Amino acid sequence: MNAQYIYLAKKNKIRLSDSKGVCSAATVLTLCKNLETLGYTLSHKLFEALQNQSEQQVAEIYINLLPDLKKLKGAHRRFRPMYPNFPAQVMDASECELYLNAMMHYWSAWIQDLVSASAESDSLAKPAVFLPDYETEEREPLTDSVKYQAIGLGDEAEFYGIFTTLAGANSSISETDMEILKWYTTQPEIMKYLPERVPYKEISASLSAWFNSEEFDSKHIKTATDVLRVAVAMSGGDVSLAEKTKFIKFKRKVRRSLLALLENAGSSLTEDLHRYPAAWKRLGEILHPGEYGSRYPKTIQAFNVLRKNLPFDTHSSLVEKAIITRDLITAVALLQERPGTFARRLDHLLRLQYYKNPFVLGEEGCDWILDNFIEVAHDISSALLIQVFHHFAHRKADRTRYFFPKGQVSKVQVDEKQFLELPVQITSIVANRIRNVLVKKFSKLPSLGNCYIDEALMSHMIPFGQRSAAKSLRTIARGSRVALPEGDCVRFFLWWKNGTGRTDIDLACNILNEHYEVVSGINYWSLRQDGWGAHSGDITSAPNGACEFIDISLSKLQLNYASKLVLQQPRYLVMQLYSYTQQPYCDLPECFAGWMMRKSPRSGEIFEAKTVADKIDLTANTTVCVPVIIDLKKREMVWSDISLKSLSAINNHRSSGANISKMAKAICEMNRPNLFDLFCMHVDARGKFIGDKSKADTIFSLYEGMTPYENDRIKSEFLS
Q1: Domain of 32, in residue numbers
Q2: In the prediction, which pLDDT does 14 show?
Q3: Do 323 and 347 belong together in one domain?
Q4: For position 618, what pLDDT does the model report?
Q5: How many domains does the chain have?
Q6: 454 and 405 within one domain
Q7: Where are the alpha helices (DSSP H) in 221-313?
Q8: Same-domain status, 387 and 514
Q9: Would you tell me how many other CB atoms lie within 10 Å of the CB of residue 705?
Q10: Phi, psi for residue 223 in degrees, rounded to 5
Q11: Which neighbouring-strand residues pair with 492?
Q12: Position 194 in a domain
């Protein structure tokens, strides 16, 4: 990762050094033409600026720029599948040819595994894995029209503003963004670009671990849980605290620093330790607070209560006691002390009041509970308030709920348990009053002027939890939908390189019907389907890198099933990736995948960088990945970005089929807060709606102004 790569990935811009001459328009046009092979062009501003650089400077810019752009698109690797003249070669081959090639490849891989497992393997020459030797035929030129991405001219302020924006995010950010933050912390004088507040605890803990600054810690590390996150970050663990961390052995200076932060963590120290008792017991064994005598008395006392399991009433236990005894007055008073917890318990309290006969607090009890909540609602984060608003605005007793648990693994959980109904008179009032709180909060932000909002943003979800998001060419929130580019052929691609030992990554695609049932598929044991689908061949070892492709003709697929029953009609294409040899993606030197839309599968090279719609890097500690789902009926790409660990000894799409179908349903049917509603609240608070985009001071749309791909800006500027 370098500065230019970061600027390109986040803003699609580059910075230029001071001019040392002039450059001819012909040279700049040549550079521009060469970039088009990767799907990029130059903005008008950058084109003019390059003409004020010397010929040597422009040449150096191109040399430095090319590797970064290639890596963003996946074009930095060589793509040669088992059948290099794919897809025609697979569609035209006999069943016997496909079968013999597969068997010879599998047998040679099996023999190589036997040699590797031998006690004398170091002295034995490992046999090569068989691949058929086909001559690559010349392909037709690419006939697709391409929408080029314009690379803009940036500056120092905007480049360092990326750090300010990421650090100021009000919800979790992706692994990629965390790596970017870490890179910035190594730059000189970066502290001056810190925002006034670092509101999200996971970010502040990571920055604390990287900065190792008492000044930063005194300002941003306030609670015992904050300190725990810092220790986890120093140990390279999951700062969301969803997964167990193996703590490192801290130096004495670091131990004293962590203990001092604990000592100053406030009056709720003992209670905070009880939130994560197992983690604190492990950390306490490393910190040894008792070694420091009376220097940290509060901390020593809190650890004694924790280790000896001494009786202690936490805030949560007091709330639960009050609720069990139907003492809602006490429960509400306690919850007002913790507004965030109040928000999460609001629905429960309203149900307790409404369904108690006689009413616990009288007939006006629900109004009283809501009034008390609104009193403290301004202290609740905007992100949480928006989710509570959406919950009540769309509350249905029979609504299926979907959750993305905390952690670095991006899995989805489905809860089909039915709510007790609440009258619409109650839920609508709750939703409206919470929306009013949000609008009031947003009104304190700078004016937006005249605003245009594209209704297409209704299909894009608000990026709340992005910690487990894959590294991708463009990052959007799970469940968001994007219209498919023009074309008939969807081409999925995969590239990987062996980790420790032979590594077999499989590319597959399931075809689901309206009810998310499997009707067909393309995979390693079914390389072609009825003229509408083809697989480039199953490669089971990649010492120097290997690739696989799947082509699906949308028109031929629909035509093939046109005469069949409704339950056999295809609706969804689910792209899937499996580590058959069970190595997690994070253990591989490199593994990435993506998809492109092609007008004709036989024109252009198999891998054409300019046609790549999305490219993701697989780096999670998982062995199953579901990057995207194609909705054939709506002709939309649904961003899923689900990563799982294998569900059986044989890791393939057959063993995971049922779970994949459930997750596909969860992703495609989830009802989550969208960007259109968020931006509407902001315009209500600090702007004016207009229908003419050309007269707008602020534009919210798919490709102009504020777009759904600017997750860091959305989190820091619109969820603050």
Answers
A1: 3-68
A2: 93
A3: yes
A4: 86
A5: 5
A6: no
A7: 224-234, 252-263, 269-275, 277-287, 297-307
A8: no
A9: 17
A10: -120, 170
A11: 550, 595
A12: no
